[in-house]
Amino acid sequence: MSAKPIAFVTGGNRGIGLAIAHSLSEDGFHVVISSRSGAVVAGFDCVSVDVTSTNSVDEAFNHIENTWGIPEVLICNAGITKDSLVMRMSDQDFEDVINANLTGAFRIAKRATKGLLKIKKGRLIFIGSVVGLLGSPGQVNYAASKSGLIGMARSFARELGSRGITANVISPGFVETDMTAALEDKRRQEIAGSIPLGRFSDVKEIADVVSFIASEKAGYITGAVIPVDGGLGMGH
């Protein structure tokens, strides 16, 4: 069993998830990361999880709890996109994104709650998106999934708060990742021009806020939507 508190980051093998894993490790957590492929990432214990499968989630948690102990910080970061204009978006594309991004986060948080109730403390941290509040053309499915995280997190907050368990949503804006790096320069400039701070964020700027919410300093914050978006979504 680990002598350190355990943090579990889904989708932690790259991008924002990997930055969060590094930040929490620096804060003294024993970090376990998951990916659908179970890819090995140097410096971390890794497990394979398909968040669209309840059995896969159960198996992963059983392994984590039996090997290292109960995770007390959960970062629900795993997700997918299947962008398309609404008239071309299939029912399957809509359902797949909801299943991975919203129902997947529910599966992780629900299973985690079993352990958190035993230790009477914990952090449920959901990685949302500014588009969950603003909306985004071509992303009806993705925006719906991220908006749904807010209602879900606030319900977890009300249901579990008396047990010392908090639930919050971190809402990034445009972040420097492989996905945004593929945008054409003209489109990148248009997007940056709509952001009050005039630039995309670095993944570490998202990870630093997650670290704060995971810490004891944030013990009285729950049910919050915390924007890390350079001012893009303010007023929403």
UniProtKB/TrEMBL annotation:
Does the keyword Oxidoreductase belong to this entry? yes
Entries under InterPro entries matching the protein: KR_dom, NAD(P)-bd_dom_sf, Sc_DH/Rdtase_CS, SDR, SDR_fam
Sorted keywords for this record are: Oxidoreductase
Q: What organism is this sequence from?
A: freshwater metagenome
What's the protein name? Unannotated protein
Gene3D superfamilies per UniProt: NAD(P)-binding Rossmann-like Domain
What's a single GO MF annotation on this record? oxidoreductase activity
Listed GO biological process terms: monocarboxylic acid metabolic process
User: The Ketoreductase domain covers which part of the protein?
Assistant: 5-194
The text of the family note is: Belongs to the short-chain dehydrogenases/reductases (SDR) family.
What SMART domains does the database record attribute to this sequence?
PKS_KR
* Keyword DNA damage recorded: no
